[in-house]
Amino acid sequence: MRDLTLVRRIERDGTRVTGVTVEDLRTHEQEFVPADLVVVAADAFRSPSLPWASGIRPRALGRYLTEHHVVIGTVALDGERMSRLVTDDELGRELARRAQNPADPVGAVNRIPFSEPDHPISLQVMYAENPPFPLDPEHPAAGNRWGYVNMGYGVRKHPRVEDGVRFDDDELDYRALPNMTIEYALTDSEDEEIEFATGMLRRAGNALGTFVADPRLLPNGSSLHYMGTMRMGEADDDTSVADPYSRVWGYENLVVGGNGLIPTANTMNPTLTSVALAVRGARQAVEDLTHASA
Ligand SMILES: Cc1cc2nc3c(=O)[nH]c(=O)nc-3n(C[C@H](O)[C@H](O)[C@H](O)COP(=O)(O)OP(=O)(O)OC[C@H]3O[C@@H](n4cnc5c(N)ncnc54)[C@H](O)[C@@H]3O)c2cc1C
Questions:
Q1: Distance, CA 226 to ligand 1 centroid (Å)?
Q2: pLDDT per residue over 198-252, tens digit each?
Q3: What is the pLDDT of residues 16-51, one digit of tens each?
């Protein structure tokens, strides 16, 4: 492990990777680090930029960018309806318990998961005593004793080759790596799913209380869950970068990791999926290395 060190290039001899060139950001000294196996796990944008900068450019590299879109709203819970479920005493005890740890802004998180075909979206409901933004004290729902829920539906972005990150060989970024331009658009079918999610959110929120922030679609990229830019696939057919064990097609010892590998649309946090893929890839890597050294 090296702190303040940037990997600049993946070095190779034909289809075999020999190691990486790293730069110490304090001294700007560069050094070659030899390796039997290189794993690139530098997030869904910077991971593909490294092979690109190193002349490793499968056609799918950086393409098929996805995230999940987020339709969100905030509701002040309706006291009359909530008091059918929770007594005033119970609410008082819960508020007292929560007051012991006022630094924690969210009291509870619940989810309704994705399921096809009936619920092709996933819902996250976060309960808190206060709204997640300053609410005008004059607002009729300000200081609501029953609290608020911030509710968001995650909506699929279906992978398309048109969506992705384009790397520029001539224009470099602040680290002198290829500059990035995001190319990304929603399709009609995605707009339809977003409309469906917005309607569902409106229905769910109205069942719980009064909206203090109306259902709305957050701007592209707001999920912070970027995927697909180094997607795995069953075959080396230009629609994927890596095989099902995260090994870059056409290279003996180059492996990729992280959310960029996720090849399909999802509607929720991707990290656990990436961890599962990494475990599978790591087991295979151990086998490959053992086999190579035998
Ligand atoms: C604010 C926020 C909240 C989130 N909340 C959740 C959540 O609740 N649940 C969830 O599942 N996911 C969440 N995510 C997503 C989660 O953080 C990512 O899925 C996860 O971090 C991806 O792991 P990774 O190892 O692929 O990439 P990263 O964690 O981004 O790690 C990549 C690392 O590579 C380094 N790097 C990049 N380029 C180079 C280079 N050239 N040389 C050397 N190092 C380099 C970076 O500095 C970084 O340390 C959240 C993300 C954000 C931003």
A1: 10
A2: 999 999 999 999 999 999 999 999 999 999 999 999 999 999 999 999 999 999 9
A3: 999 999 999 999 999 999 999 999 999 999 999 999
Q: Residue 126: CB within 6 Å of ligand 1? A: no
Kindly report the protein residue whose alpha carbon is nearest to atom 21 of ligand 1.
271
Q: Where in the chain are the domains?
A: 5-65+226-293, 68-158+187-217
- The alpha carbon of residue 92 and the mean position of all alpha carbons in its chain are separated, in whole angstroms, by 37
Q: 147 near 77, Cβ under 8 Å? A: yes
Handedness of CA 63, 68, 71, 75 (dihedral sign): negative
CATH of domain 5-65+226-293: 3.50.50.60
Query: CA 262 → CA 53, 90, 192, 225, 259, distances in Å?
Result: 22, 43, 23, 11, 6
Distances (CA, A) of 93 to 97, 98, 267: 6, 9, 35
Instruction: Please identify, by atom number, the ligand 1 atom nearest to the C-alpha of residue 259.
Output: 26
How far is C-alpha 60 from the geometric centre of its chain's CA atoms?
Answer: 19
* Beta-bridge partner residues of 242: 232, 248
Any residues with CB less than 8 A from the CB of 286 and at least 6 apart, and which?
A: none
Mean pLDDT of the chain: 96
